What we know:
five-stranded mixed beta sheet
Amino acid sequence: xxxLNQSIREIFFSTKCSICGKIIEDNRYICYDCLKLxxxxxxxxxxxxYYYLYYYEEDIRKVIADYKLKNRKDLVVExxxxxxxxxxxxxxxxxxDIVIPVPISKKRREERGFNQVEEILKKxxxxxxxxxxxxxxxxxxxxxxxxxxxxxxKNAFGKIKLEIDEKNILLVDDIVTTGSTIKEIKRxxxxxxxxxxxxxxxxxxxxxxxx
Length: 211
């Protein structure tokens, strides 16, 4: 017999797998076959201290889009299970002192109801420090050159009040495309101190990213 939650879910939300579209009978958003494939593909990779699990291709793109844009916040369960091992390895291996999720603007938080990266960190019980995004920016994929992306993100973050001298910092994001957002956060961080090292972890990265 179906639970009340499952019945409500079927009425108001799709029960199809975010990747293959197959109907899922239990309370998940990625079917076992697709989840197994993602686990197999999700090896930790590194480009100049940018750590990531996937290239931003069709399967993981669908998952992230569903999570952020299609009212599938509960996908945090599956996504957290995919990133847990790699993320915790970096925390331990690099002796991370401070974890900072890349913030979203107030406008996007109101639209979505949550910051997708913060939800993953909460699910994994990883403590983090929030910084403020004070500027509504265009989506980076709508901008077709490096200069416009840099101008788009320039001065997007508020003054950071944090003791970072000789600290190892990890910035966490869902997708890195050009790296412009990360570079701007690094610039703001270095205004308030001298970190030992700044690392980046993202679920996915663009194949064109060079570091």
